[in-house]
Amino acid sequence: MKLDFTKPLYVLAPLAGYTDLPFRSVVKKFGADFTISEMISSNALVYESKKTMKMLQKSSLEDPYFVQIAGAEEEIVKKAVEKLNTIEGIDGIDLNSGCPVPKVVKQGAGSGLLKDLDRFKRIVETIKKYSNKTYTSVKVRLGFSENIVEQIAVAAQEAGADFITIHGRTRSGGFKAPVDYAAIKRAKESVKIPVIANGDITDYQKAQEVLHLTKADGVMIGRGAIGNPWIFYQLKQGEAFVNEQVKKEIIFEHFRQMLHFYGDYGVVLFRKHLHTYSKGYPGASQFREIINRVTDKDEMEELIERFFRSDAAAA
């Protein structure tokens, strides 16, 4: 077994458009315990869409590596699992039962599964039964419109999930309602399988606080890692602060991985990351204006080198 739950695990949450292979490999190199693909529709997997197959790729650093799927029909989920069974290097399948996006919910998938716990259980059981991977895990919210997290956690355990990640809001709570860490703690107390806490974990101190409050077996960090991937380095090293040299090293590693994966187009795609990396630095808005026009990798590298020099600490 690759996951050691005897100490807190630090995990990167799947985030569409952000947690692609380059970003995942960077956080893995600098401290994340395992990584998960962006959410993949079971239908897209069954029909082997080109884009989907590229999304399944992982970096050699990603070990352990999970693929997250969404789906609400047992037969389609079974076929998706069988497809994943033929791919080496995947350690687990994670079922998304938390996505609040209307087009996903409308199909009964994502957080839509939380409206029907019998169906939710059948989908988890299907993955568990047909998967040849080491782990079956589930990511959930507290409920759809009401908080029934203990029932959800018990249902996941009964269906054979090896561990569960809980985002501390209902689907109705979107991303704005306060996160209910006490509910995650209650869910943790109601099951024997490990529970990972998720929701509004934006920095090192907050991660420590959430682990203390919930008694969870780990934390999953999503939006808190965007522009701040060194949070995993801090958690792994036990350091509340991270120096500019380490930040710069991580930014450059991310840039290299983008070029390696996307080719020259990686320069353009990296702009949005530089927008978040430069937040709080003197001259950030001018820097953003300049990089928005840059397409040449050497020019971009030089601009990054100049802007993120170790003496230009964030204001």
TrEMBL record:
Residues 12-308 form the DUS-like FMN-binding domain. GO terms for molecular function: flavin adenine dinucleotide binding; tRNA binding; tRNA dihydrouridine synthase activity. CDD domains: DUS_like_FMN. Catalyzes the synthesis of 5,6-dihydrouridine (D), a modified base found in the D-loop of most tRNAs, via the reduction of the C5-C6 double bond in target uridines. Keywords: Flavoprotein, FMN, NADP, Nucleotide-binding, Oxidoreductase, RNA-binding, tRNA processing, tRNA-binding. This is tRNA-dihydrouridine synthase. The keyword Oxidoreductase applies. Its EC number is 1.3.1.-. Belongs to the dus family. FMN binds at residues 68, 139, 167, 222-223. The active site is at residue 99. Its cofactor is FMN. It catalyses: a 5,6-dihydrouridine in tRNA + NADP(+) = a uridine in tRNA + NADPH + H(+); a 5,6-dihydrouridine in tRNA + NAD(+) = a uridine in tRNA + NADH + H(+). PROSITE patterns: UPF0034.
